[in-house]
Amino acid sequence: MPQKVTPDASRRSETARRAILAAALDLVGEVGYAKLTIEGIAAAAGVGKQTIYRWWPSKGSLLFDAFLTLATDGQEDQAAALPDTGDVMADLKMVLRATVAELNEPRYDQPMRALHTEIVHDPALAADYAKRLDEPMRELKKDRLRAAQRAGQVAEDVDLDVAVDMLFGPILNRWLQRTGPLTPEYADRVVETALRGLQPRKAEQF
Amino acid sequence: MPQKVTPDASRRSETARRAILAAALDLVGEVGYAKLTIEGIAAAAGVGKQTIYRWWPSKGSLLFDAFLTLATDGQEDQAAALPDTGDVMADLKMVLRATVAELNEPRYDQPMRALHTEIVHDPALAADYAKRLDEPMRELKKDRLRAAQRAGQVAEDVDLDVAVDMLFGPILNRWLQRTGPLTPEYADRVVETALRGLQPRKAEQF
Question: Of A186, A187, A201, whose CA–CA distance to B199 is shortest?
Fold first, then answer.
C-alpha cells in the first residue's frame, strides 16, 4: 500500500483493490486457475499490471486475498464465534449445514477449488492459509467445543484438534474429492456420528 | 491393448506399458503435474508418443493408471481385506498408521498430490477415481466395520460411509492441506476419537 496518501488517494486505492479482487474471483470462475493471468485480471479490473504487482507478488497470493475478502465480506458486524444455544449437537449441525450450503454455492466453487489445489502444491501458500484462515477458524470451533466441555456435553479428554478435523474434514473432502453428494443430511450424520462415536453405548445414556 | 497378439508381442507390450507408467511417476515427481507432458513421458520411457496415445487418452488417465499400479504393486498375493484380529481399535490404528506411512513416503508424495488436485478440477477423472479406487477400498473398510458390528464393537445404527469418511478423511486432509504434522500418534488419536465419540461416556462402560 502507498504511504502518506491523501484521503482521496486512499479511497481510490481501496476502490482499485476491491475491483482487482472482484476481477480475480470472476476470472478464476470463468477460465480456471491454470489460465488465470495477472494481465487478464488487470484488464478486467481496469488497472495497470504494475498496480497489481505493487500489492501482490503472485496470482496465488492475490487469489488468496480475494478469497479471504469473499469469506469475511459483510460479516464485520457479526460476532466472530460459532452459535451457542447450549445444545452442541444442534449448533454443530447448523454450522456444518451452513458450510455445506457455502461449498455448494457456484460463486464459491471455482475460487475455493483453485485455492485448495494451489495449497496442495505450494507449501508457502499453505502456511499463509493455515495462519490467516485455518487457525483463526479452528480456534472459533475449538472455543465452541470447550464451552460444550464445560457444559458436560463433550468429554474432557477429547483432543479438540482431532475433533475439529473429524467434524469438518469429511465435508471438505467430500466436496473436493467428489466422493458423494454433499447434502444437509450428510452434515447431520457427520455431527451425530462424531458426537456419539462408532462404539455402541447404552440406549438410556443419551 | 492390441488384440490377437503373439506371446512375445504381448510381453513386449507389457514391458512398454510398465516403462511408460514408471516414467510417468518419475517425471511427475521431478517436474510436477502442470509441466508433465506425453512427449516427456514417451522420451523417458523410450517409446513413441503414439504408443502412449493408443492406450491413454490424456496425461490424467495415464497418471491415474500409474498410481493404481503403484498402489497395488506387489500386493497381488495379499488378501484384499483389512486386518481382523478381533480388536477393531487396534486394527484401525494399524491401517491408519500404514496410510500415514504411505503418504509420508517421498515416492508417493508428488504423484498422489498431482492425482488428487486433478480430481478436484476434473469431474470425469473424479468419477474414474471413485469407481476404480475409492469405492473398492471403501468396501474393504466397510467390511471390517461390519465385522466389528457383528462382534458388538461398532453400533448397529452407525452410517458406515460416514464412519469411513471420519476415519480416513482427517488423514487425507491433513496431508493434502498441510494443516498439521501427519504422525502415527495423530492416526491413533483419530481412531480413538472416532470410536469413542466426543460425548462423555460412563467410565465403567469401556
Answer: A201
- Is the CB of B153 inside 8 Å of chain A's CB atoms? yes
In a domain, A80, yes or no: no
Give the number of other CB atoms < 10 A from CB of residue A144: 20
Q: Within this chain, do residues B49 and B104 fall inside the same structural domain, yes or no?
A: no
Q: How far is CA B88 from CA A163, B75, B82, B127, B142, in A?
A: 20, 23, 10, 30, 12
Give the residue ranges of DSSP H helices in A46-105: 49-55, 59-72, 88-103
Express each pLDDT in A59-105 by its tens digit. 888 888 888 777 666 454 344 689 999 999 999 999 999 999 988 98
Residue B79 lies in a domain: no
Quote the minimal CA–CA distance from B3 to chain A in Å: 34
Domain count, chain B: 2
pLDDT class of B206 with cuts at 50, 70, 90 = very low
Residue B175 reports pLDDT greater than 80: yes
Q: How far apart are CA A158 and CA A169, in angstroms?
A: 17
Could you say which residues from 167 to 206 on chain A have a Cβ atom under 8 Å away from some Cβ of chain B? 169-170, 172-174, 176-180, 186, 189-190, 193-202, 205-206
First to last CA, chain A: 56
Residues in chain A: 206
Distance CA A10, CA B56 (A): 55
